[in-house]
Design goal:
With 148 residues, the protein is mostly helical. It contains 4 helices and 4 strands. Helices cover 55% and strands 6% of the residues. Strand 3 (68-69) and strand 4 (72-73) form a beta hairpin.
């Protein structure tokens, strides 16, 4: 059975026509706010008064919903710019100041003789395992004797 494998997994799914869910929500919210400003101002004022705020609201909506800068959405681009302004740009290395992610805890020996014997046995077992692994790698996974 064959399955279709998606080729472009970085692209967002489109919901309505070419619009993604984010673009649809941004357009709806921005368009609603712009329409609210238009209806509030157009009832009492003439067109030179309400055209400015309406165009500003529509252009901000279009900017955030559809414009891409350097293959980033305008929202991501704006947030990256804010992070660039407020985060430090110069990194200074101070020896011994970092957090070490892994800590190794040594087991406490119960008796000196037992620890020495078990340590020697573990070393011998490790050497045997390494010899076995070396033999497998040298033979490219094939055994010398086919019966074993």
């Amino acid at each position: 059975m064959q399955f279709k494998v998606p080729q472009n997994v970085q692209r967002e799914d489109t919901i309505v026509g070419p619009l993604t869910l984010k673009q649809l929500i941004m357009s709806g919210v921005g368009g609603g706010i712009t329409y609210g400003v238009y209806t509030a101002l157009s009832n009492t004022y003439t067109w030179p008064v309400w055209i400015g705020p309406t165009l500003i609201g529509a252009s901000i909506t279009i900017l955030f919903a559809f414009v891409k800068v350097h293959e980033l959405t305008f929202t991501q681009y704006l947030l990256s710019g804010v992070a660039y302004l407020f985060l430090p740009r110069k990194r200074v290395w101070v020896k011994g100041s970092g957090n070490v992610g892994a800590s190794v805890e040594q087991p406490k020996p119960a008796a000196k003789e037992k620890t020495d014997n078990t340590k020697i046995e573990r070393q011998q077992e490790t050497i045997k395992n390494l010899d076995r692994l070396t033999e497998i790698l040298d033979n490219q996974g094939m055994t010398k004797n086919p019966n074993t």
